[in-house]
Amino acid sequence: MSNNRLWVKQILVSKDHPRFKSLALRNKLVDGYEKGVTSTQGLIAHGRGEAFDYLLGEQTSENALSATNVACAYLLTARYPILSINGNTAALVPEEIAEFCTITDIPIEVNLFHRSEERIKRIADHLRAYGVANVLTGFDVIKLDHIASNRAKVDRQGIFKADVVFAPLEDGDRAHALTQLGKIILTVDLNPLSRTAVTSTVTIVDEVTRAMKNLIGFAKHFEGENDKARLDTLKASFDNFQNLKASYVIMQKRLQSLVQ
Amino acid sequence: MSNNRLWVKQILVSKDHPRFKSLALRNKLVDGYEKGVTSTQGLIAHGRGEAFDYLLGEQTSENALSATNVACAYLLTARYPILSINGNTAALVPEEIAEFCTITDIPIEVNLFHRSEERIKRIADHLRAYGVANVLTGFDVIKLDHIASNRAKVDRQGIFKADVVFAPLEDGDRAHALTQLGKIILTVDLNPLSRTAVTSTVTIVDEVTRAMKNLIGFAKHFEGENDKARLDTLKASFDNFQNLKASYVIMQKRLQSLVQ
């Protein structure tokens, strides 16, 4: 088959189709669902993200790019950074996770809102198949306070020990519980109004595939960077509230342009 | 169990939870998915709706209430009205459909974007279990022009014959094909920017459960109404473009309020 077309759930979609990228992502997610990597709730959450991305014009904004830069600075200067990966993230960006981890040597913890040992194993296997070497699956768990118990489990050698947690597409309760523990939370969330978005230290309001590609770009750029002061300045100059506001403004302007 | 709480996919969610209603709806849909009533694509589409509802403040606007009123006037004055029901609508509002059909004596046609005889049967059985008496399942089908063939089938005794079609959560291609046939299309769509929203005669920009409850309220209010002139005035006074604009403005203002 020509690489200008793609089978999306039995429908042959041309790369010229205005919704091609969106349909291709959806297809990845539905495949992930069929493999047991993501859940029915994950599919619904993805649809929600799609709508916000539509309002953002389906492109990375300047403020999202800055936030990605800052998130990368946090990860590169952390004492013990970790990537907290759930089903949707694993289904959508396994190659990008593998590449980022290879460059930065940061470990991964599989962490689910709808936790099941079976699904954690599937996600870990899925990530390993894409070349992710260091995957923690919650062997040595501890429960966080202030959160329903089935969502509170984190690995003592992973998220619990980490000072900086990169948790894309995270649940609001858990993002809050982690910040309560004094951790720096970096997230990717297309909804700038979500509890995760407003709770996190740095919120990249962008589609996760675009965000991961940019994160990889920054990590390569900063590779071997010895100027810690420069990375610290990047972190200090960032204001997440102003960053979220910039995304509200983009959505608002897009709606306004449709009214006129 | 106390009726102040609800099991949402193995998570006991308190009615005080800020996302209780949204999680309860999601649960209904996931149950529908597990019964084969809705599809993976239906789950994603629901998520998109959630995002727009979030921007609407998760409540019925004045303009949505007016549009519901007008839709009801169209249904009550139609020569041959019909309800076109898909998987998501059947999963989310079976009780409301049954109640509305009992009051108005309007028949239903099960009509799917991802058409399969098996799923049509499941949806029809699901609706009948909730007390819907008159369900057409496309026994005597005819194909519409200008639309991909697997989505073009409608029942000769149902949608094809109808002058007014109430088609909540409808696909844009089909909404367009039906208006091309000169039919009045009434829809419920949380996305005021969708092709369905802009193509239909009356678009109720509201969550389908809230919309159906209001529709039932109007139908009861108008029951036995002999003043056809009053219903015709309601219809004539409605401008769908102004109605959609009002929804853009609500979303835009909500985003603006967050910036200030």
Major sheet description of chain A:
6 strands, parallel
Instruction: Give the topology string of chain A: H per helix, E per strand.
Output: EEHHHEHHEHEEEEHEHEHHH
Contiguous helical run count of chain A: 11
Total number of strands of chain A: 10
Q: What do the pLDDT scores of chain A average to? A: 87
Gyration radius over CA of chain A: 18 Å
Terminus-to-terminus distance of chain A: 43 Å
Quaternary state of this entry equals homodimer
Q: State which percent range the strand residues of chain A make up.
A: 5-15%
Largest interface: A-B, 34 and 35 residues
Main-sheet strand order of chain A equals 5-4-3-8-9-10
Helix-strand category of chain A: alpha/beta
Helical percentage of chain A: 40-55%
* Residue windows where pLDDT falls under 50 for at least 5 positions of chain A: 1-13
Broad shape of chain A: globular
